[in-house]
Amino acid sequence: MGQSSSTLSPEEAAAIKTEVENIIASHGVVVFSKTRCPYCTKAKNHLKKFSANAYIIELDIVENGAAIQAYLRERDGQRTVPNIFIGTSHVGGCSDLLQIEDGDLTTMLAKLKDVTQY
C-alpha cells in the first residue's frame, strides 16, 4: 500500500512534502480522508451541504497514502483523518469542522471563490 515515512529516503520524503504542500496551495478545500472512515464521510457530506468542491485524497487508496499521513502528522500534529484544510489553513478533523458556525464556514468558502478555484 505504499511506504511509511520511516522507510522513505530523504529524497522521497522531500517529494511527499512538496506534493502535499502543492495540493494544499492549489485547492481551496482539501480533505485527506480514508474510504471506510465514518468521520471522513460525515465531514465530506458536511462540506457538500455548503457546495464546497473539496479536493479529496483517499489515503487508503493512493500509493503513498501512509507517507502522506505521516507527513501531515509531522506538519500539523494531527494523527487522524479526516485532515481538513480550507484555504491554506489547517482546520483539523471532523469535529473541528462541525464546530465552525455555518455562517462562518459560508464566509470562509465564499472568500475562496474570490481567490482561488476550488
Automatic annotation (TrEMBL):
PROSITE patterns: GLUTAREDOXIN_1, GLUTAREDOXIN_2
Family annotation (Pfam families): Glutaredoxin
Keywords: Disulfide bond, Electron transport, Redox-active center, Transport
Keyword Disulfide bond applies: yes
Biological process per Gene Ontology, one example term: cellular response to oxidative stress
Signal peptide start-end: none
GO molecular function terms noted in the UniProt entry: glutathione disulfide oxidoreductase activity
Domain Glutaredoxin: 29-91
Transmembrane feature ranges: none
A GO cellular-component term linked to this record: cytoplasm
Domain of life: Eukaryota
NCBIfam families noted in UniProt: GRX_euk
Protein name: Glutaredoxin domain-containing protein
Organism of provenance: Entomortierella chlamydospora
